């Protein structure tokens, strides 16, 4: 079908409110349609009566008497005798409005409409999909009042277009073709990530602000002093996304200052509550305005923040949300992980902007702000319920099993730790990740839902060797380096299904752990690891790996502040077993005392329930619970031999291979990140195999090394590089598009199981990876 040909779906009826089976509207001749610009929201009329829109309603979905239209292609809207529609982008939903005749005669007369035209948009309110209007969801206001014309349909269309061409227009959202796509790229739609963003702090009254916002590049930090007027941003962008990604609809590079805008309506039933605006992550500096009032400035690209906007919102009408973002990336010494303005092999395209979810929730004035829960293998539960007012209010915590049976309930005081015991709980193990539901109340008015798993992380001697212990037993930690990059979304996965697919692949092979490499994921990632039974080694995102620059005292203090936030915001997730402070010396000061001495002690105080890997790779000064060696093609895991710049194995700490493997295999261009900078660096991969037979042979030899070092020496865990290819790196189990799986599944499952058997021969827990392999992909 020619792209100019309209195929707008309508609901023909004899009365404006009747619903019938959808049909297709009449089309103007194709040669005449070519004359009409599709860059505007044109209107044209077909019929024998004049209609005006008398009332705009914004009901939730499902209310009878309202006619809705789905525009299936970016085409012309229509006005017919019984229907009025409007132009939308591909896949967007449009409202068909109520009408009444104002004149009835034999002439074909068209009344230009001067109202903004609302577009139906899906959002989440209290977990339900509803339709919420907003300014960004409207067509332009026509610049002239009601003008009637006695003309034929084509003349009317052209006349309407001539007037509309003077009105402001926005570049509509559309997924930009990335250098490589995935099977999920074009399924994202305009209602992304509908799940509740914080599974451990859920209230019933919440509303997602994810979807289509407007966006414009800015010039410098000074622009924040001159916010744009409402409705003036000229491009549409998908939130959440990285602006450098195809999913954003922008795919712009080298833009470091920007504006975002959307509108939202606060449900009237929230009027006597606090209205909280939540940002899960914005990279990097965000300044937030509500209805023209500057509310906060937040710094940091990996932590969430909440703003109480109760005093600034209007209930039952539209509110304006404006966000200014500045992302210096590696121009500054800030926590950024592997992002860089100049990608090359192991450093990748950056992520700027609102890359995680944005949402509203309703809560009492004194409400729960954070929930710290640690449930130990002996049944003891330690809880701190943080409150907004710090008023020492009464709290109650109730524990339920998955069948809804109440197991225990305990009262306490807000902002103070208290403990209680659950008798004989089922423990959380990788092969049986049992979780329990929690209900937490503050006073009479606030209630949140959460969950936890009973398990204990510790360090101890097993047959004379220092080991990582889970529930008192040596469990060999075996998993992959997981960087969390996507070719279509960069830092932001296309959806939850895609994100969890990677984790299910690891379980299918029998891995029981994942190292989240210098990136912090959305909370839904850690929930999935809790549910699947994947232990998580969580890295702190590093400062730039630039040996020519060292952090100043202020930059080091900021790194420490953001490390504390990462630990505090994630320490209730059962699957996280250890924190990594520095990776291979990146951003690590070479001073005496070394910076990790202070940071290790800081994290130990914040979270005594987990272990700490102070330095992974090298520049190790003996702090923390692990001796962690990186030696890719020849792993050295708890061995009496080592290679510089690594240090000799320390028997008082746990010996692990924090990174090893990394063997590669090139694929066709169909599965490669098709950017010259990346293609040119493929040969820098640690080792490249000519075919998959060779690849699987080399993997088997590396598994043998780990197995033998576990049997003979003190190897307690290993991290294979890596889950997926990333840009110029071609050493993933999966290609970057997740379409090619390199390993021989049965061979790898057997090799991985042999490592667990070796660990069991040295006093480890006797467990089989077969339960883990039962996951469906």
From TrEMBL:
Chain segments carrying region Disordered: 1-24
One GO-annotated biological process of the protein: carbohydrate metabolic process
UniProt keyword Flavoprotein present: no
Key words, A-Z: Glycosidase, Hydrolase
Limits of the Glycoside hydrolase family 2 immunoglobulin-like beta-sandwich domain: 370-455
Biased composition (Basic residues): 1-10
The keyword Repeat is annotated on this UniProt entry: no
GO MF terms held by the record: hydrolase activity, hydrolyzing O-glycosyl compounds
Domain of life the protein comes from: Eukaryota
Residue ranges constituting the Beta-mannosidase-like galactose-binding domain according to the UniProt record: 250-332
SUPFAM superfamilies: (Trans)glycosidases, beta-Galactosidase/glucuronidase domain, Galactose-binding domain-like
Listed Pfam families: Glyco_hydro_2, Glyco_hydro_2_C, Glyco_hydro_2_N2
Family in the record: Belongs to the glycosyl hydrolase 2 family.
Protein name as it appears in the record: Beta-galactosidase
Domain Glycoside hydrolase family 2 catalytic: 497-625
């Amino acid at each position: 079908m020619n792209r100019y040909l309209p195929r707008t779906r309508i609901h023909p009826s004899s009365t404006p409110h009747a619903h019938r089976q959808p049909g297709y509207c009449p089309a103007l001749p194709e040669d005449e349609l070519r004359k009409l610009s599709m860059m505007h929201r044109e209107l044209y009329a077909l019929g024998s009566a004049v209609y005006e829109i008398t009332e705009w309603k914004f009901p939730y979905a499902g209310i009878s008497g309202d006619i809705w239209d789905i525009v299936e292609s970016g085409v012309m809207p229509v006005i017919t005798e019984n229907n009025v529609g409007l132009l939308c982008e591909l896949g967007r939903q449009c409202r068909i409005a109520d009408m009444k005749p104002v004149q009835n005669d034999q002439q074909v007369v068209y009344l230009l409409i001067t109202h903004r035209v609302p577009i139906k948009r899906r959002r989440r309110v209290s977990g339900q999909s509803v339709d919420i209007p907003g300014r960004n969801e409207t067509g332009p206001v026509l610049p002239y009042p009601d003008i009637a014309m006695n003309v034929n349909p084509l003349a009317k269309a052209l006349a309407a277009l001539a007037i509309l061409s003077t009105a402001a227009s926005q570049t509509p959202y559309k997924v930009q073709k990335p250098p490589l796509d995935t099977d999920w790229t074009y399924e994202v739609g305009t209602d992304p990530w509908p799940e509740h963003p914080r599974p451990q702090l859920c209230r019933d009254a919440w509303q997602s602000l994810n979807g289509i916002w407007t966006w414009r590049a800015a010039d410098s930090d000074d622009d924040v002093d001159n916010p744009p007027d409402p409705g003036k941003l000229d491009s549409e962008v998908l939130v959440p996304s990285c602006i450098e990604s195809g999913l954003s609809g922008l795919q712009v590079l080298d833009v470091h200052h920007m504006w975002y805008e959307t509108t939202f309506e606060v449900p009237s039933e929230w009027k006597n509550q606090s209205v909280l605006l939540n940002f899960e992550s914005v990279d990097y500096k965000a300044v937030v305005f509500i209805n023209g009032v500057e509310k906060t400035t937040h710094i940091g690209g990996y932590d969430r923040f909440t703003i109480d906007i109760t005093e600034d919102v209007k209930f039952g009408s539209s509110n304006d949300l404006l966000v200014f973002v500045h992302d210096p990336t590696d121009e500054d010494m800030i926590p950024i992980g592997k992002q860089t303005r100049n990608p090359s092999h192991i450093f990748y395209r950056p992520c700027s902007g609102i890359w995680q979810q944005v949402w509203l929730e309703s809560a009492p004035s004194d409400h729960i702000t954070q929930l710290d829960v640690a449930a130990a293998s002996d049944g003891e539960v330690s809880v701190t319920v943080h409150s907004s007012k710090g008023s020492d209010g009464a709290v109650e915590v109730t524990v339920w099993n998955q069948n809804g049976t109440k197991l225990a309930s305990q009262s306490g005081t807000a902002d103070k730790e208290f403990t209680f015991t659950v008798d004989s709980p089922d423990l959380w193990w990788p092969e049986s990740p049992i979780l329990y539901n929690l209900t937490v109340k503050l006073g009479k008015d606030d209630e949140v839902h959460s969950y936890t798993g009973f398990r204990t992380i510790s360090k101890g001697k097993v047959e004379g060797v220092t080991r990582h212990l889970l529930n008192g037993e040596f469990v060999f930690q075996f998993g992959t380096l997981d960087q969390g990059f996507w070719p279509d979304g960069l830092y932001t996965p296309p959806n939850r299904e895609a994100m969890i697919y990677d984790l299910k692949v690891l379980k299918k092979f029998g891995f029981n752990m994942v190292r989240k490499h210098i990136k912090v994921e959305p909370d839904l990632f850690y929930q999935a690891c809790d549910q699947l039974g994947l232990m998580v080694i969580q890295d702190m995102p590093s400062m730039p790996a630039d040996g020519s620059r060292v952090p100043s005292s202020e930059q080091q203090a900021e790194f420490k502040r953001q490390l504390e936030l990462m630990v505090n915001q994630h320490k209730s997730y059962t699957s996280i077993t250890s924190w990594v402070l520095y990776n291979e010396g990146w951003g690590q000061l070479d001073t005496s005392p070394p910076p990790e001495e202070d940071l290790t002690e800081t994290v130990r105080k914040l979270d005594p329930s987990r272990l700490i890997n102070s330095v992974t790779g090298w520049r190790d000064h003996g702090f923390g619970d692990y001796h962690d060696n990186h030696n890719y093609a020849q792993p050295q895991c708890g061995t009496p031999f080592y290679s510089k710049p690594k240090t000799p194995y320390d028997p008082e700490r746990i010996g692990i291979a924090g990174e090893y493997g990394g063997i590669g295999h090139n694929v066709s261009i169909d599965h490669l990140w098709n950017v010259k900078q990346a293609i040119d660096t493929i040969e820098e991969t640690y080792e490249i195999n000519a075919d998959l037979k060779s690849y699987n042979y080399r993997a088997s030899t590396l598994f043998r090394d780990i197995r033998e070092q576990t049997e003979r020496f003190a190897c307690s865990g290993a991290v294979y590089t890596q889950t997926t290819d990333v840009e110029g790196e071609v050493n993933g189990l999966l290609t970057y598009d997740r379409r090619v799986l390199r390993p021989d599944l049965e061979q790898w499952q057997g090799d991985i199981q042999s490592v667990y058997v070796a660990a069991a021969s040295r006093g480890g827990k006797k467990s089989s990876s077969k339960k883990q392999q039962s996951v469906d992909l």
